[in-house]
Amino acid sequence: PRTVYRKDYHAPEYLVDSTRLHFELQPKSTLVKSCLQIRRNPDAGGGLPPLVLDGIELELLSVSIDGALVPASRYRELPEGLSIDVEKPEFLLEIHNRISPEDNTSLEGLYLSNGMYCTQCEAEGFRKITYYPDRPDVMSKFTTTIVAPRQYPVLLANGNEIERSHTEDGRQVVTWEDPFAKPAYLFALVAGELQHIEDSFTTASGREVKLQIFTEAKNIGKCDHAMRSLKKAMRWDEEVYGREYDLDIFMVVAVDHFNMGAMENKGLNIFNSACVLASPKTATDRSFQTIESIVGHEYFHNWSGNRVTCRDWFQLSLKEGFTVFRDAEFSADMNSRAVKRIEDVSMLRTAQFAEDAGPMAHPVRPDSYMEISNFYTLTIYEKGAEVVRMIHTLLGAEGFRKGSDLYFERHDGQAVTCEDFVRAMEDANGVDLTRFRRWYSQAGTPVLDVSDEFDARSGTYSLTIRQSCPPTPGQEEKLPLHIPVAMGLLDSDGNDLPLDDDDNTQKVLEVTEAEQTFRFEGLKEKPLPSLLRGFSAPVKVHYDYSTEQLLFLMRSDSDEFNRWDAGQRLAFAALEQLQQDFRAGRTLELQPELVDAYRSVLANRELDQALVAEMLALPSAQTLAEHAQKIDAEAIVAARDFARRELALALKDELRDCYRRLQSDKPYDPNAADIAERSLKNTCLAYLSVTEEPELLTLAEEQFSEAANMTDSAAALAALTNHAPDDIATSALENFYRRWEGDTQVVELWFGVQSGSARRGTLDAVRELMQHPAFELKNPNKVRSVIGVFANRNFAQFHRTDGSGFAFLAEQVVALDKLNPQVAARLVTPLTRWKKYTEELGEKMRAALQSVMDSGKISRDLYEVVSKSLA
Ligand code: DPP
Ligand code: ZN
């Protein structure tokens, strides 16, 4: 397959001033007629080169220009497109083609999901609908007419409905017009037998916007939370960014078959059902929060993505990094800020850091790709959001707002680059971000080595920070970055020391050199540094904290994130020791200090209870793996299981008391305080069940039978599945299924609990689940909840020493690739890290990966990931 390079960008040869689409929907043979008003791009050079359009798997029927059929001698069908000879600089092009939505299992383009027609065009799905210059810098005004039989009463597209009629044979005809020019990737169409809920929102300037959420009838009771979230997001974007919504109607549609979480199509967002549908009885707190953040994310794209879009796909983080930053701040404002930050950083540190250290490592603005779908990554999204967050930290909230105002004003209606974003931030603030730009071009996770010194005579404390960054594929040498390090200094009573004449107790050190020393004067004693507060940069910090100092920070740091982080460092060190002891065949013993620290965290009623729950969680196996030089999966599992069980046994009484204290029969509400209490309660329950003591497992059984909400029910089910005797676990799973078999989202949760189970027989169970009537290889959510959970979240069973977990994954990836390349290429990720594993296990992983390569013809998506990983 061909590699596309960022440096090869050139402006489009032709522009499309307007796009009129006409669809006659039929499952096997949908007729698409497209009328494009084409114009030679004055910025692209002279002459009239052929017009080259993208198109994949299309049946071409006819081509006309200005109303006259073009003879076949004047156009050529290409492997992935169409080239048409051009005789004048402006003309009306009409193309007719057919597609088969029913056979489209890639879920890109137009496809059917449970009988409903829907589309997914980002990044390059529109070319599976009709021939088009399918690139984001070609922006056009779209008008869409849909003709469909009566059984599809709801016919939707972008913009406003402008016309509705019937054909002579009784089919419905509806026309939509979107007044905003947009790239084809934001096009959407939906047709189905759908119900909807409706509400309205009055914008700051007093315009009424109609809000509608569409779903199959059986799910109509699950839309309220998304509607509330949408209204909160609309208000928040007005208040924090001064951005109003711009159309008279905003629609959201829930779809069961969807490759991603959701899609920000102009005025018509399409959502994966799992990311929009929720009710107290059927959805966990986590999914309530996920829905709020994704609804926010897609809504925020209306400005950061739609009004101002990307010039090319190398700039993807321009819209995704910025929009993730926006949604994270929205969630932080709606819920617990510290806990939101901890969750995001945990994900970044495990999965994104692993990506940065693996064969697919790439900068936030990549230089090349074979298949753009493979670059919807944690680096583009999450690290990209951290880069935007750093700009926010450097400029302050006000400066950042000036920058975003200028960016939106300057580039409204344009397709632009990451560079344009940074320049707007610079221009609005009169600052120079030259060195900061390296965050966009340099891959890999930087490391800060910090040392300090105190001169008692002069009262001077010096912090020396050395930065480095390991090599990544194609980038051997790294240059110093501009890194904001938020920090504070604690005195021996745990108070923050003033750091400047204004008595500020927190400072942002701007690290720009390979090595730099920062001095603080007038101190009476050597302070303890609290570094990288709030995780102010996506880096690893090494400072040689003693156990005592970490315990002290856990108790005293005024930065909640760093309190949590100190606990993580402490637990991390203890788990490292246990791994070493395990490998050396020594008896395992848990540091008593760790037990004491957890005991006092558990007793702390002043802290946000959700933070307490986070602080009680040991670093995940994936986190331990990311830190390891060579991953010894067996040692990681042994160390972590041992520590968890020791903690549970030592703190049994306190855990049970805390559990009891938090039991409540309040009616369910997903507010931050209640979520916090459930989170801590269920953390206690999970620990208690680890003891496998019958009396404590009874708590899980009781909770399972009495739970009035899905958060408690699912937590109890997981506890029983992982730790109860076989008969109890089996009967809980059966009961649960019988109760919820009609509910798609709950069945997916039920799949996940089983695939994630630490029980030895889980791989066989997973194979059996794939035979379950509710499993469907064509449905990405099912694939993710069964195979994905097993490979990504069941560290112990996936890494079985016999390599059977790897072989299983390889086999599924090959099967899936024939249906859905995007999802297959993503699913293979765990195997790509084989070089980091101890030799024996690593070799088994490599062999599994090689078997994918040797399986015959594989998709471009999968080929890119597998070939880069084997190289
Ligand atoms: N642009 C989508 C999102 O991240 C993904 N297709 O919201
Ligand atoms: Zn997005």
Automatic annotation (TrEMBL):
Q: Which UniProt keywords apply?
A: Aminopeptidase, Hydrolase, Metal-binding, Metalloprotease, Protease, Zinc
Q: Name one GO molecular function term.
A: alanyl aminopeptidase activity
Q: Which co-factor is required?
A: Zn(2+)
> What are the Peptidase M1 alanyl aminopeptidase Ig-like fold domain coordinates in residue numbering?
444-544
Query: Where does the record place the Peptidase M1 membrane alanine aminopeptidase domain?
Result: 226-439
Write down the EC number: 3.4.11.2
InterPro entries registered for this protein in UniProt: Aminopeptidase_N-like_N (IPR045357), Aminopeptidase_N-like_N_sf (IPR042097), PepN_Ig-like_sf (IPR038438), Peptidase_M1 (IPR001930), Peptidase_M1_dom (IPR014782), Peptidase_M1_pepN (IPR012779), Peptidase_M1_pepN_C (IPR024601), Peptidase_M1_pepN_C_sf (IPR037144)
> What is the protein's given name?
Aminopeptidase N
- What organism is listed for this UniProt entry? Microbulbifer halophilus
Gene name per UniProt:
pepN
